[in-house]
Amino acid sequence: MEKEIIARFMEEHVAFCRFLGMRLTDGGPGWVEMRLPFRPEFMGDPLRPALHGGLVTTLIDTAGGAAAMTEMETSDRISTIDIRVDYLRPGEPKDLVVRATVLRQGNRVAVVGATAHQGDATKPIADGRAVYSLRRQDEMRG
């Protein structure tokens, strides 16, 4: 599936992505980059200050699913089976960027790696890996 189709689907049909302001900014076969513009409501620790970890995981999961979708047909379906995120440093009060790359994709399962940063990819704030269940349209018919 082309990144423009994925971006349009997420922005027009996935209310949660629209509510948070997620944007698919770049991508190609097997990878995407997504951005989440900063809002003060995203702070998890106002004293530090630091972004909420759940927000980081949310963007890693969404970008991972979108990366897997780049190697799927429009009619196929996807859902998260498992996700693991290692937080490497606190997220600052600024935009969040995640680049997700498909590590392996078969007929039923995709494994995706993702890294979150805030403008400097050499200084990641989190690293994640997710596993997705794939349901192919041809399997849904039978």
Written description of the protein model:
This protein is α+β, with helices and mostly antiparallel strands. It has a single domain, classed as Hotdog Thioesterase (Thiol Ester Dehydrase, Chain A, Roll), CATH 3.10.129. It has a six-stranded antiparallel β-sheet. A two-stranded antiparallel sheet has the order 3-4. A hairpin with an 8-residue loop joins strand 7 and strand 8.
How many helices? The count is 4
Biggest pleated sheet: 6 strands, antiparallel
Strand content: 35-45%
Helix fraction by DSSP (H/I, runs of at least 4): 25-40%
Order of the strands making up the biggest sheet = 1-2-6-7-8-5
Report the principal-axis shape. globular
Q: Report the uncertain regions.
A: none
Strand/helix succession: HHEEEEHEEEEH
What CATH architecture would you give? Roll
Query: Mean pLDDT, rounded to whole units?
Result: 95
Radius of gyration: 15 Å
**What is the CATH C level class, in words?**
Alpha Beta
Output the structural class. Answer: alpha+beta
Distance between the termini: 22 Å
- Give the name of the CATH superfamily: Hotdog Thioesterase
Tally of discrete structural domains:
1
- Look up the CATH topology: Thiol Ester Dehydrase, Chain A
User: How many individual β-strands?
Assistant: 8
